[in-house]
Specification:
This protein is α+β, with helices and mostly antiparallel strands. It has one domain. It has helices spanning 2-21, 27-45, 54-59, 124-129, 188-195, 201-205, 216-231; strands at residues 62-89, 92-93, 97-121, 134-136, 143-145, 164-170, 173-176, 183-186. Strands 1, 2, 3, 4, 5, 6, 7 and 8 form an 8-stranded mixed sheet that branches. It is globular and about 40 Å long.
Amino acid sequence: MKKLISPFLCFAVVLASSSMARAASSKQDLQQRVDAAKVVLDQILGTSDRTIPLNILQMATCVGVVPGMKKGAFLFGVQYGQGIVTCRTGHGWSAPVFIRMAGGSFGFQAGGQSTDLILVAVNNKGFQDLLKSKFQIGGDVSAAAGPVGRDSQAATDWRMNAELLTYSRSKGLFAGIDLDGTSVSQNTDDTNTYYGASHSFTSILSGTVPVPTGAVPFVRAVAKAFVDAKDRK
């Protein structure tokens, strides 16, 4: 009985989390999300070997971090998470915007977990995709599980076809992940709450909106990774 109840509870927790996440967030909640994204980024980029390759950091146009994406399943699987995105501009990296990610699958499955996700746009098309109100990975946007390894120069299909490279970290393991079917949508309400005013994603990600004080550490962490990668080229 316990074995049956446990997966069901995991599934229920994910559904409850997604419903709560869609409710209005406070400025404090959003700042905690920004802080959590920086922690995830620092931990992953600080790994000497199992991390995002330098050649990918060099060409990155945007970086998205979704800390603690909830995944659960009881025959029907669901996943839901919220995160932030910053993009490279002509004068540095932009202030962040808030996004939602959601997906589902059907089949014999059970269990639940929390996973950190990183999305890396590797060309201008990937940047433009993030300006859409909503898109589906693997459908509207071509994506690939990103290669791992500080000095990896793996010549795979992503060089020619992928707009986004996708990564996950679960239970300490960092690896590329297939997120086909997962939707990414703009969280306009949270973005406006964080900035205290209405700004379009285009204006924020193009760098015309100043970086809020609370988001400076996160943006600096992304910028440092990019500059370090260029210096090692």
